[in-house]
Amino acid sequence: MTDPDTGGPLHFTPHDFRRMFITDAILSGLPPHIAQIIAGHRDINVTMGYKAVYPDEAIQAHLAFLARRRAIRPSEEYRVPTDDEWTEFLGHFERRKVSTGTCGRAFGTPCIHEHACIRCSMLWPDPAHRERLVEIRDNLTARITEAQREGWLGDVEGLQVSLAGANHKLAQLERRTPGPAAVDLGIPALTPRS
Fold first, then answer.
1. What value does the mean pLDDT take over residues 138-144?
2. Residue among 6, 1, 5, 44 nearest 22 (CA)
3. Please, are residues 140 and 166 in contact by the beta-carbon 8 Å criterion?
4. What's the rounded Cα separation, in Å, for the pair 175 and 159?
5. Averaged pLDDT for residues 39-45
6. Residue 188: predicted pLDDT
7. What DSSP state is assigned to residue 109?
8. Most buried residue, 37, 78, 152, 178, by most Cβ within 10 Å?
9. 154 exposure class (CB count in 10 Å sphere: 0-12, 13-18, 19+)
10. 50, 18 contact by CB (below 8 A)
11. Is the four-CA dihedral 78, 84, 88, 91 of positive or negative sign?
């Protein structure tokens, strides 16, 4: 390839190949958000800036990609659900609501902890129910003390697993709770040395 301005050979940098790859991938139907992940960009606008096409072309390429995907899917996936199926689906989301938050398990999957939600990594604790979690934690601590005193070692082990879960859920809430507002201290001014 020759440079149209100088007539000499074109020189490419690794960055040029990156830009060409992203442009070609998006124009060939790769969704822009997937190109963003491949390129390692935090912001999709950076990815869109890399590609040497107009956004409308990217949108059209993505729509064409979706049309191709839909064409190869079985037609029964697009049928209207029955009333029973719809009721079961909505019921799943109602059953996700528990006393300490919301269960995040996927539709149609069983509860792996036999509804011992405090132990489950899929429980998303609700900040409004923090006091309930504290009450559960304190109750578990008292029950562990009682079980140790009475020599119920099997109970101690199970209660300790639940206590660790309760402490983890409280820590999750602490991480999600915003801290105090930041105070602007200004930018220090540098003074010239004498």
1. 95
2. 44
3. yes
4. 24
5. 85
6. 63
7. P
8. 152
9. exposed
10. yes
11. positive
What residues contact 35, with CB distance under 8 A and at least 6 apart?
22, 25, 26, 47, 51
| C-alpha distance from residue 191 to each of 86, 124, 186, 194 (Å) | 70, 51, 15, 9
In single-letter form, the type of residue at position 139 comes to N
Q: What value does the mean pLDDT of the chain take?
A: 82
Residues 149-184: pLDDT tens digits?
999 988 999 899 999 999 999 998 888 766 555 566
Q: What's the distance, Cα to Cα, between the start and end of the chain in Å?
A: 59
Tens digit of each residue's pLDDT (9 = 90 or more) over 85-126: 888 888 887 878 888 888 887 777 777 777 678 888 888 899
191: left (phi over 0), alpha (psi -120 to 50) or beta: beta
Q: What backbone torsions phi and psi does residue 25 show, to the nearest 5 degrees?
A: -65, -45
Predicted confidence band at 75 (pLDDT cuts at 50, 70, 90)?
confident
Block residue for tokens 């639940």? 162
Distance from C-alpha of 102 to C-alpha of 105, rounded to nearest angstrom: 9
